[in-house]
Write a structure and sequence with these properties.
- The chain is mainly alpha-helical.
- The chain contains 21 helices and two strands.
- It has helices at about 5-10, 10-30, 35-60, 75-95, 105-120, 130-145, 155-185, 190-195, 205-220, 230-235, 240-245, 245-265, 280-300, 305-325, 330-360, 370-375, 375-390, 395-410, 420-445, 460-475, 480-485, and strands at about 65, 70-75.
- A two-stranded antiparallel sheet has the order 1-2.
- Strand 1 and strand 2 form a beta hairpin.
- Helix 15 (about 330-360) runs antiparallel to helix 17, helix 15 packs antiparallel against helix 18 (about 395-410) and helix 17 (about 375-390) runs antiparallel to helix 19.
- The two termini are about 30 Å apart.
- The model has no long low-confidence stretch (mean pLDDT about 90).
Length: about 475
Amino acid sequence: MDYPGLIKLLAPECLVVLTALGVLFADLKFWRGLPSRQRFGRGVALATVGLLAAALFAGMGEKSADLLLGTLVLTRVSQFLKLVLLLLTLGTVWLCSDADFTDHVGEFLALLLLAATGMMLLISTENLLMIFVSLELVSLSLYVMTAFNKRSSCSAEAALKYFLFGGMAAGFMLFGFSFLYGLSGSIHLPDIAVALRTKGSDPLAMAAIVMVLAGFGFKIAAVPFHFWAPDTYDGAPAPAAAFIASGSKVASFFILATLLQAGMPGAAGSGAWNAFVPGWMPIVAILATASMVFGNLAALAQSSLRRLLACSAIAHAGYALLAIMAEPADAKPALLYYVTTYALTLVGMFGLVSVVEGGNGDDSMGQLAGLSQRSPLLAACLSVFGLSLAGVPPFAGFFGKFYLFVAVAKSGPTLSSFWLVLVAIAMSCVSLYYYLQVLKQAWVAIPVEGSVPARASRPLVLVVSLLALAVVLLGCVPELLLRFLR
């Protein structure tokens, strides 16, 4: 084994881990006596240097490698996604620039960086054991980050629910992986794919598919595995909620698509209307439909911005699941464009949530009233994010949905898959209503008497503005992203 060569291939991950240890050591050794806001500022600066160095190595590193039976698999797409994850991590770190929700600054930033490391490893493997270990590194870090706001009982409750549901989902996933190993005698996805082609609709294979989808259904907050999402988005500190909603979704959807399309193509079946064939496609079709319908209808009843974003995330998980059912040539570019632009938008939205909460500690939509008068720039950014999530042109969310719907509609020999697109379009119309309700508060509503105006620091305004600019740019020139994802 060429260990120096292996470390070179894993240079971005190694740099992020070293940055996590450096931030933790500096906070415990040198910054402990300083106010938490000042410590967060210094931690953000140090983490930024480490993340930029990791991004540099990811951009210059090897674009192709396959080591140890798929334990480490590097492709141009996975290397590009590493850059995306590092960008999302950097945006989340900058949301902490003026935070004061905890005195354990070094520990929080270290866990955030370790979660990012797990996500980078997750998208760089085709080995079941490595998939599970990487997912657990991500999950354990996010469970603890959710509980970091000790001043809020909701934070502890959310973390407990997140942990209990996550532990159960991990058990289902591990059982599914063990069945796949029993069927194939291998934990390498290409070997599993060869074995499943000869198994047909073997009951054990079907049980493995159901358990794996149950485990990943939790990770992506798809119905009926979504119960943790509203409480977690509501109770977690804003940076933790932003990372759960963004980075973890990008990594989870990528590895789910890889697992199904590269590891189980022979057990796909069909999700066509009136022509269901046993396999993972009909299950994905049902999960996607239930998530789109439930998520959007539940969002109509929300007055809390965080819970609205949680219900919206459930619906968007349904949209993204549709892409997995498309032809392999179109599936991954459509899926990755959609989840990447969605993740950028969610980081920006949670930045605005932290601004809203900064005034009265309240994230209700009524706190947005008068935002256009107090800060036209932030109100404009809110409009960009909201309209993009609703799928309105010329923002990235519109092209993401358009590309995704086209990929699904042409995936069958006839229009047999078009029923999924019709459901998605109908639910997108529903989503436009509640996003417009949010924008109405910012641009039309009169501020509540006695409310404290929310204030945003310059770093927070900068990162939110840059994310809004990226959403506009990727909507107007989608090839900037698509040429890498193809």
